[in-house]
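Here we describe the complex-level prediction in full. Unlike the single-chain runs in Section 2.1, the two entities below were treated as one system.
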Amino acid sequence: MAKTYEPIATTTVSNGTTNSVEFTSISGNYTDLIIVASAKYSSAGYVIEMTFNSDTGTNYSYTRITGDGTSAASTRFTSQSKAFGGWTGASAFAANVVQIMNYSNSTTYKTALTRANPVDDRVAAYVSLWRSTSAITSIKLTLEGGATNYYTSGSSFTLYGIKAA
Amino acid sequence: MAATFYKIATVTVGSGGASSINFTSIPSTYTDLCLLLSIRDDNTAGGNFQGSAMEINADSANQPDIYVYGTSSSVGSGANSGQWSWMNTGVSTASVFSSVQLYFPNYTSSNYKSISIDGVTEQNGTSAIASLKAKLWQNTSAITSIKIKSYSVSSLIVQYSSATLYGIKNS
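The structure predicted for the assembly as a whole is:
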């Protein structure tokens, strides 16, 4: 059987002073990408901002559905400088799974589907759009709120590649 | 480079149904677990969609959650359901089974375990419920067993329900 689901890289935060994690030199050998992040922030749940190919222009948009245990909501955000990469937990590591489909084509804009599970705060699903036809070769996952906000030690981020054949 | 998505075990419920689907002696050689369910119970006491229950390492408690759901006519959110998702029941249209994915990152870590759950339960086009759930197992032990049950203690998981547990390695 062909090998279709392969690990590309893993980063586990060990120093407690890391604000961002980046996967670089992503090859075009796969069809889709998946990021699995188990992430925590030391004092409050914060968003994990995701940018592709170091693009921080307002070339992203995303729409979310979220529930906080009391009510459900859906919101759209346009002309953003980042896609949505997940959510950190405050009291526990939050599971996040990001799927990036057809990431290496040079014809279409790129979409990502993110499931975020900071159970001490909310549950959410996001669909993000990056308005670029470039192949994705790098992905940066930055904790929002400034460079002095850090992932808790033990937060882990793994990038997988999936081959259609 | 090695492939990393391995089947650990598959359970298919046979004739007569089963009170639970069990995965035991889960090895610690993977990074994450992914459990895929096609499932339905025989409960006829309620509606088309009923709840479920899960034991991790024989622990059915200590599983707070937050969920959001949508039906054909409404959306909502709740917490601490004590369930992993909804599933079709004994009064659902014949042959309709719910599909559910449970993803367990870092299941052997010494931290509490965060679980991502996506579920869809259809009723042959007449109604449906889709749900997203964030669940936490408040235990620092490695996960070594998972038991899937109906929320109704007297109900059985019906024949042809299936569950496959996968292990994912990050290296």
